[in-house]
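REQUEST
  id: r-88c1
  op: predict_structure
  target: Ion transport domain-containing protein
  payload:
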Amino acid sequence: MEREELIIHIQSVTIKDRIKDFLNLPRPIHEELDDNEQCVWSSNILLCATVFLEDAVNYQSIVHKVTRKYLLIYRWFSSSFIKKLHQIILMINLCLALFEQPSSFSITSDVRDQPERIIFSYNILMIIEGLTLFWFLFYISTKSTCLGIKYVQKRFWIIIFFIVIIYSLCEWFTLFIFIRQTYHGFRVRRILRPIFMIESSQLMKKVFKALHKNLLTIIACISLAFIHILFFAIMGMFLFPKSDRPDSQNTTYFSNLHDSVFQLLVLYSTANNPDIMMPAYSDRRLNALFFIVFVIIGIYWIQNITTAVVYRAFRGYFLNSIINSQLRRRIAVRASFEILRKRMSYNGSMETKDTVPISIIQTVLTSVSMNKWHFNQINHCLNELMYENEVINLDQYTHIMQLLDLNPKLAPDLDIETLNENLFDRLKAVGRSKAFDFIGTIFAILSVLLVTIEVSHHHLNTDYEDLVIYIIPIAFINLSLIIYFFLEIIVKAWAFGPINFFRSSTMHILEATVAFTCFVLQMIYIMIHGTPVMAMNRYVDVKQEENSFLTLWATTKTCNMLFIYRLIRFLPASKNIRIIVGTVIDEIRNGGAFFGVLFSCYYAYSILGMELFGGAVDELYKRYNQSNQTICGTYEQLEYWPNGFNDFYSSMVTLYHIMIVNQWYVFVNGFRSATDSIWSELYFIFWYLFVTNIGLNICLALSGDIHDAKKKRADQHEELIVSNMYDIYRSDIKEPTSTEIIQRLHQHPYINFREISSERRIIST
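RESPONSE
  id: r-88c1
  status: 200
  body:
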């Protein structure tokens, strides 16, 4: 009876606990005793075991201080609430670039329109930035305190974080207190902001570590490409001598070494092909061989070698990362059990046993911050084990804690009721049937087709009466389809149950959102105009508002077009298509580390571009107005005036255009002319090399890993969901040996797992 009462007590949840669960705050831990064995586990022992289990849940290292004060600080520091708060503050810090002068809030970035920008208070922005910087200082100081100085000294990113935050605070303090708004020079702290984001992500740091590990090989490949370009540039100057003709090859492209190298670099990206070849080819047929050989060697050999090198460097690299994460989890689980093996008897002596009471494990488990699904599964196994024995050994404990490896999305706990033969259950069966889905998809295609025809006639017909003749039947059919989609979602939610229906697929949430939004917008439109057909006065207003962002009519039609995504339902019909589409979706879902690295470089490079080329487009436009002469194919002739580095938003868009490669040399020539400096080319060339030769190939490596994982599961007739990095490499991960785990435990700087005396020290602290 006492054991049953203890279990009931453990599972009870107070209102205070519910609030802490809602805010993801750690729960307090109290001392527990085992009456049968006359032993007691101090609150610090239980706290240490709880923290180690939370380390296991989060794949974190247990190398941190274990005194009660530091365990409490570390536990709060590692809680979900603090992590989310840190992410919010980090996002605020990064978003400041949009509001800082010059702000990105204007209708257009075209310098010809001289857009009026919204100017935000300098003092408020500086105060917000200062608060974020002080939070980062508190964050890294707390982290370093819990881990210890010896550990921090060996961690590169923590040291870099310290240096950057100290410098940023110094620059911020100097500008805010002494210089204030009069300074418009170089602000280095803004370029360094992405480092705060990188340090907060283990996977992003591993990406940079992989880059550093293979940096010499990557540099060798890029150097090989540069030597290839340089060799052919010099050969081009020899093969195409100077000519008096103004359109000769030498005059146009190979007049000097700089132009020769730059033009062949552009050809290396295929951006100016076949323009660079045409003058020489028009002079002589055999001149084409020069460019053909250059392209074959450079693009189809050297560039593919670079791709292979980067691909090989990263392909499978995350497998080692996940293996190390798995090892950290196993070490943390083992450490939590080893800690609980030590208990104090009532006579004050320390005892060590090979088993731990299950009630103590459940006490610790209720305080651990973990997924509810994992908690229920582990607690269920412990309850079943208690029927056989009241204690648990290491093997049983390790086996049960392996439930943490399971992905709840791969084993959804959907309780779908069984249908009977009555009328309502038969209607539910219709709502669950594939035929009902198929009919809805056909209607979705029809709806999209009708909307397309309606919008097309709206733009083609200038006479209102002609327009009404075409769209009256279409408008009423489309209204009927919208009502059908609205009722379809209600029927499906009723047939499956609302919770089961929306939990089973995110597509159901998207379909419901689109259906309800379309229905509400259509009803609002009918209430205003009295008919789904556009009234005469409204037709005139819409024609006058064609340059506006979105009218109610346009919003309704745009939302209606989203039904085209119902075609995704046909994809699971083919296993190969499902694998390919799933690879794309899962890369977006799991590529946070890669995309984070790309975004960090993107962010820093955009800020650097603002510092280097802010106002360059204005200068170029001023010269253009004065001379009113342009050369065909230049920045001015192509009217690239909205592209520049006058603010953060336009800088991001400009770098995006260069990343696409097409016409990127036009930007180089334009900004080189605006700055009157040949060195400005290096900014754009380095961006092109990083994005095309490194960044995109890293994403290619991740795609290969995900596709292989899905293909292997498909061959084994397993579920194709890959919702986290562990799922990608699950079949390739091997369990670490007990010897390896013990060796790592013995290396703990604050706990000596070999000696019982160290455990006495833990309890005393």
